[in-house]
């Protein structure tokens, strides 16, 4: 890990992953709790977004984008050897994210245009910061990260335009956002899952290590990108469904080559495989839903968002928090419990689409597990995020 001069400001703003992981986990618990309240008829959300669009927007551009900011804040100094963004600039960046959440909540009074300008300012600023750091550090290999942020910025702008009635609301914006996030996980997960697994297996004397990056990985990434591009632009078409099934199969073969079953003794490694396994499941289900009109695409979307995105985010946040705060890379019982909870949330939400009789109860159960997982992270890991690094 790159060493930097001592930091004298507030500990929470000494490294970007600290405020953003804390904010992301808190919002991941609060926003779905509010959403369940709307579904159960306890109250209404008064925003320029309809309730479903608000739920989608805040989970992607509130929760997921904050975790991306935290991940990049931790990773870029190691990629470039440059000082991390911290202190006043980091406080300003975090304030922009918070302002976006407040603006969306008050959007009826602010108006669609001002709400969009405030909310978009965070991603736009984050993109500029990331570009500056990558270019200054001549880290050309990771420039696609900036491209992903630009795509998310465009998707967010389109979603605001749809809410304002300036664009037709056909779901293209949120499908693009979900696709970008899934592709990012495919790219980054393809590096870290086999790498962390190989390190742990080698340390513990295993000789059957994950396969090196090769043609199967390239095929899985290429088919996933093409499949999700088709799903974004041409959902419901025959070619889209076929390529989605191919992408699911390729990702399934890929994850099997990473020797996850050999790492069952270490939950911190195993959770990476469990989370990534939702990628082939979700892509395959989305392909089935595309080709079979009787199958709900919501089932597949929640496999990708709750299972893959939620599971991988929780896996990365716990590991990164432990590592960057100087704590042993081991998952204790509480950490294992939140891993179980996030996967239970995905399973319950999928079951809700299959069992219409118990749909509302299963959705509420899914929400309970999800809120428990991320509220648990915020409370338990929050003390590490605001505390002093162990040397």
Compile the SSE list and pairings:
Layout: H1 17-39, H2 51-80, H3 88-105, H4 107-110, H5 112-136, H6 143-164, H7 172-203, H8 215-233, H9 238-256, H10 267-291, H11 297-324, H12 333-354, H13 359-386
Helix pairs in contact: 1-2, 1-13, 2-3, 2-5, 2-7, 2-11, 3-5, 5-6, 6-7, 7-8, 7-10, 7-11, 8-9, 9-10, 10-11, 11-12, 11-13, 12-13
Low-confidence stretches: none
Tell me roughly what share of residues is in helical segments.
over 70%
The total beta strand count reads: 0
Average pLDDT score: 95
Q: How many individual helices?
A: 13
Q: How much strand content do the residues show?
A: under 5%
Largest sheet: none
Quote the distance from N terminus to C terminus: 13 Å
Overall 3D shape: globular
Radius of gyration, in Å, reads 20 Å
Structural class: mainly alpha
Helix and strand pattern: HHHHHHHHHHHHH
